[in-house]
Amino acid sequence: MRAGSPRLLREINDRAAIEALLRNGPLTRAELEGIIGLSKPATAQLLTRLEDEGTVLRNGLRGGGRGPRAQLWTVNGALAHVAAVDLTPDSIDIAIADISGATLTEHRAPMPKTDVLAAFHSAVTKAAAQAGLTTDALHHVVVGSPGAVDPATGRLNYAPHMPDWENKNIPEELEALLDTSVTVENDVNLVALEEMIAGRAVGVRDFVLLWPADAVGAAVVVNGVLLRGATGGAGEIDALQVPDHAHADTGTRRTGSRYGDLLDSPGIARLARAHGVSARTGLSAVEKALGAGPAGREFLVDLARRIATGVANVVAVLDPELVLLSGDIAQAGGTTLADLVAAELRRLVVPRTPVRLALVTGKPVRSGALHSALSVVREQVFGLPAATTEPFSGPRRGEERTASTSPSAR
Asked: Which parts of the chain are coiled coil (predicted)?
């Protein structure tokens, strides 16, 4: 085995320390020493070196009970900044964060029906200004959007709810507007990424995430990697033609209904009314059904039949470990709806795939976009590996033993 050079070993340990600080927040020297496995003198030298470079900062003191208070260390967030954007037909929801992951500001603006690019530029510019930045000072921007960008053309495909964004090279136009690098990612893919990082799919290698809404979307993860497809359209099942297996008669055709029409808000509300559950929206219908007795139960069973019919096509091909239901409709239905979908799914396909609720709620698209943007920038600035769902790998005593590994923090 060939011994690693001192420079290589320092780089390995520096990356390990930076990653530990990013994952765990401010740490004392002793805590960092325990995580990365270096000796006390080696950890002290590492922190001095990183502080001299401006990579880490002192961040107050931690009380030590009867003993002396210990110095806390943190990554210098000012080294780089990112923006995460949740783009919908109705709104632009933005968060600006520094490289440590600390959110500096949030801004939400309506999405007009015309001049959409100008509105986008204005919203991001305002959010950046709130954080004391200009858009060209953002190191990377990730935009979560319905539909998917074709990697060959840059055009947004499979997005009927966002017609004003069609026939444009979206990443190219947004980069020109903001004067910085931009990634446009399918919104449900970003939710799946967030579930892999902080939700129900941590440690799950193969799963499908479904978002029942006005534009039904799915994300497919195979062997821990998002499956995007040749044109970016993997998981775009909104236009899938399926039979309506609901028992109540809502006027839909039993053969060849559009999956998205069965699960959009008007479609769910009609199904609820057919069961005697009066509601103006699909969300309120599901909420009311949980306390509406037998009528509510039968409506939820019918809704589960509709959801399972589309999911079955994906499960039959992929045989994933898990199906996750995400979004407001799924969360309103809770474990009751998830269990009903699982039961219906077992009637339709051979795999006995469990169905669970996604754990990440609130703003999962924006959260996924933020993690994606941070992954890009941390790789550029610190040389850390790109987005991963695996935890920090632990001790690496580089300066106290020989090494033959590549310069990686894992």
From this structure: none
